[in-house]
């Protein structure tokens, strides 16, 4: 009798515990995890002005209630709606922990009704033995149906007797969505009362939405990308990081940087794959501002080895941030990033790093520091951009003679280079006392001024000739400047006083007539005796004055006497005029760089230059920058250029470990059969390696089989196949592969045989 009573008590206790485990709210109250309220589901991000479907908040999964049944994945976070305010923190995904054992109270709450759940996907994945997908499906159903309890043994879920339905799930798993739609329609036509499982339809809708989103992203239809993401929140999870990247980019491309930031913040707060987190920072840095990037980098985690997880790209980030400071003189880049680039410039000796520092300091008026770095870059590589930066610093430092000498051979490489050289010539000719210039320098300066029809230096040549008491030559230079720019008052004034010096009364009267009402000093010429007409132009404030006088004045090269059409000076040149002098400075605009010795916006380059830059960046192992360069090259009207750009972009994505992106890039332009095969082989190999690293051994085997159909398997991939078999406990196949590979002398294959022996005969391994 006593034993029967004990059995009854135990039975009641067990029944109470089961009921409590199924009732999350009651269990939370019992174990002290919270009151009767429900915790909000994790949020994804703020979707800007796009309104997604209304999704009612789901209660937080009670991790203790399901831990003893299955170790599930994290919940599927929902997409927040437009009404949610900016700046909300994105909650961390929930993880499953072991439920503590507790004695249920005497009085149990009512057992919640079990929801009707479509478990057809569970049956399909169970039949295939795909445990990873099975667990993910269980986690998804738990998020949708908080009261649903998964089977104690997921792999024991009974198979469905519906053969046609199993074939439909097979089509779904192979991404043959159009065939699946047709199969559903055909069966409904032949069986009027049959309806497909709602879960299958939901999954099919989501899969098709993903395909539309990817297509819209590839076509740069960013508004469509955002809309699809808002309407399909189940896509926006860490399990499909590529979709999250595309939505984030769409926000950035549609001028919604705060929403793009929210997307990247979500990834960094919730997603754990190290490679994906690293790639997220690389992608974000190409789209977001410096300040926003600092918010993202604040979410960096330790790498477990005493460092930080983004240390491998810290140098490239520092370079990018300093380059951003070059484009915005008001941006104060953190000293830590400047120190990194300075250390790189000193230790690695790359001219590109020195140039970054030079432009950064020049834009802030730190001419001494700028000159130091530009000289370092110029000494390392005498390039147009290094010479241009050094010349601008020398002009600012009142050293125009050296600036002219530095820029002369690069004067025709770009519009900016030409403008810089001409600015150096104008400041050189304006020096007081006049610089002691050789005939070679005077001749080449004059020839370039005439070729470019550059008014400021032509005018300075006139004042220079007057200083050397060569009024006839001065008059010809002033006349030439006026032919190029008839409204240039300083040249008109110089010509008037020079003609007066030559006693050309008629010429002076003609100038006064033309400038009547426009220039008071020309109109009053000759009315007073207190003139300084023959005085040379004064130097600009702070202008360097060379020591010593000119011993024997050189002959000035005369300007042509034929009329020359009037042109305006280059837009990037500013003239600061005074009655008898002119100094010229140049504002730096977007730099045009050849090669890839510095970081620039590839969109500023023409397609051919961008293509060359992409290959150069690949040689420097900077694949994400190469992706941008190849992207610019894809805009070329030349078919061959587009083919090469698509091929290069695919290789760049592969090097970055983004095989899905590589596959998309390969389709952006037609490829030769050989290249298409090469890319497909490389993509499949990369996917196989990624799947093996992620312990998705069946998936890795599929990729290896697909690749083997295209090309004979090399030894390293044979060894990988052997380890896949070993991991799947297919020991016979593993031994066959390792033995064949070891026969070629592969050390890795011999190591594989040793690992196989250790796995199958652990007692024989000492």
List keywords for this structure.
766 residues, 2 strands, mainly alpha, elongated, disordered N terminus
Radius of gyration: 38 Å
Proportion in β-strands? under 5%
Strand order of the largest sheet: 1-2
Determine the N-to-C terminus distance.
Answer: 58 Å
As a percent range, the share of helical residues equals 55-70%
Q: Summarize the biggest pleated sheet.
A: 2 strands, antiparallel
Q: Round the mean pLDDT to the nearest integer and report it.
A: 75
The number of helices is 35
Number of strands: 2
Shape, per Cα inertia axes: elongated
Give the low-confidence spans: 1-107, 528-594
Secondary-structure content class:
mainly alpha
Structural overview:
- There is one protein chain.
- A two-stranded antiparallel sheet has the order 1-2.
- It is elongated, with a radius of gyration of 38 Å.
- It is built from 35 helices and 2 strands.
- Helix 29 packs antiparallel against helix 30.
- It has 766 residues and is mainly α.
């Amino acid at each position: 009798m006593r034993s029967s009573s004990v059995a009854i008590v135990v039975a009641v206790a067990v029944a109470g515990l089961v009921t409590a485990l199924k009732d999350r709210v009651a269990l939370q109250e019992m174990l002290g995890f919270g009151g009767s309220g429900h915790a909000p589901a994790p949020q994804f991000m703020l979707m800007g002005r796009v309104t997604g479907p209304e999704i009612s908040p789901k209660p937080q999964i009670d991790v203790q209630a399901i831990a003893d049944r299955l170790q599930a994945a994290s919940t599927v976070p929902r997409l927040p709606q437009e009404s949610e305010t900016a700046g909300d923190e994105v909650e961390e995904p929930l993880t499953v922990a072991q439920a503590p054992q507790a004695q249920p109270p005497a009085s149990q709450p009512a057992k919640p009704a079990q929801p009707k759940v479509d478990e057809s996907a569970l049956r399909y994945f169970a039949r295939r033995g795909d445990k990873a997908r099975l667990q993910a499906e269980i986690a998804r159903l738990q998020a949708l149906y908080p009261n649903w309890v998964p089977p104690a043994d997921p792999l024991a879920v009974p198979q469905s007797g519906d053969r046609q339905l199993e074939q439909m799930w097979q089509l779904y798993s192979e991404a043959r969505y159009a065939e699946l739609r047709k199969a559903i329609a055909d069966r409904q036509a032949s069986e009027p009362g049959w309806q497909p499982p709602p879960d299958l339809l939901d999954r099919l809708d989501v899969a098709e939405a993903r395909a539309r989103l990817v297509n819209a992203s590839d076509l740069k239809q960013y508004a469509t990308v955002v809309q699809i993401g808002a309407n399909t929140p189940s896509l926006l999870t860490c399990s499909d990081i590529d979709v999250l990247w595309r939505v984030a980019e769409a926000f950035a491309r549609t001028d919604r940087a705060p929403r793009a930031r929210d997307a990247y913040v979500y990834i960094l707060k919730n997603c754990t794959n190290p490679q994906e987190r690293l790639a997220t920072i690389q992608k974000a840095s190409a789209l977001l501002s410096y300040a926003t990037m600092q918010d993202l980098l604040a979410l960096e985690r330790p790498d477990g080895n005493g460092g930080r997880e983004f240390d491998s790209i810290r140098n490239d980030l520092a370079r990018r941030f300093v380059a951003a400071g070059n484009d915005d003189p008001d941006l104060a880049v953190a000293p830590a990033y400047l120190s990194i680039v300075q250390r790189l410039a000193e230790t690695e000796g790359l001219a590109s790093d020195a140039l970054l520092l030079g432009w950064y300091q020049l834009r802030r008026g730190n001419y001494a520091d700028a000159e130091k770095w530009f000289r370092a870059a110029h000494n390392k590589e005498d390039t147009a951009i290094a010479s241009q930066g050094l010349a601008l610093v020398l002009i600012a430092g009142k050293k125009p003679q050296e600036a002219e000498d530095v820029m002369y051979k690069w004067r025709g490489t770009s519009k900016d280079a030409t403008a810089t050289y001409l600015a150096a010539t104008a400041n050189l000719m304006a020096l007081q006392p006049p610089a002691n210039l050789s005939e070679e320098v005077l001749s080449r300066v004059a020839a370039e001024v005439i070729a470019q029809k550059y008014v400021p230096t032509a005018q300075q040549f006139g004042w220079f000739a007057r200083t050397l008491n060569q009024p006839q030559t001065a008059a010809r230079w002033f006349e030439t400047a006026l032919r190029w720019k008839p409204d240039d008052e300083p040249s008109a004034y110089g010509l008037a006083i020079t003609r007066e010096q030559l006693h050309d009364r008629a010429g002076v009267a003609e100038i006064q007539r033309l400038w009547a009402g426009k220039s008071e000093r020309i109109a009053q010429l000759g009315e007073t005796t207190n003139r300084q007409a023959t005085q040379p132009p004064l130097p600009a404030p702070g202008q360097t004055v060379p020591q010593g006088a000119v011993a024997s004045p050189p002959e000035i090269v005369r300007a042509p006497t034929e009329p020359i059409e009037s042109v305006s000076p280059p837009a990037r040149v500013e003239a600061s005029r005074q009655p008898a002098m002119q100094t010229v400075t140049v504002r730096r605009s977007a730099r045009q760089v050849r090669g890839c010795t510095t970081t620039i916006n590839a969109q500023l380059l023409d397609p051919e230059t961008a293509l060359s830059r992409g290959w150069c960046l690949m040689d420097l192992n900077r694949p994400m920058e190469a992706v941008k360069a190849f992207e610019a090259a894809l805009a070329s009207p030349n078919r061959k250029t587009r083919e090469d750009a698509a091929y290069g972009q695919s290789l760049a994505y592969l090097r970055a470990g983004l095989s899905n992106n590589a596959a998309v890039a390969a389709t952006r332009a037609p490829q030769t059969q050989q290249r298409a095969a090469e890319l497909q082989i490389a993509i499949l190999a990369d996917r196989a390696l990624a799947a093996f690293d992620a312990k998705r051994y069946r998936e890795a085997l599929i990729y290896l089989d697909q690749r083997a159909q295209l090309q004979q398997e090399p030894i390293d991939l044979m060894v990988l196949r052997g380890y896949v078999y070993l991991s799947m406990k297919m020991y016979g196949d593993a031994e066959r592969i390792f033995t064949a590979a070891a026969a070629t002398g592969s050390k890795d294959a011999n190591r594989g045989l040793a690992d196989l022996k250790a796995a199958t005969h652990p007692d024989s391994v000492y």
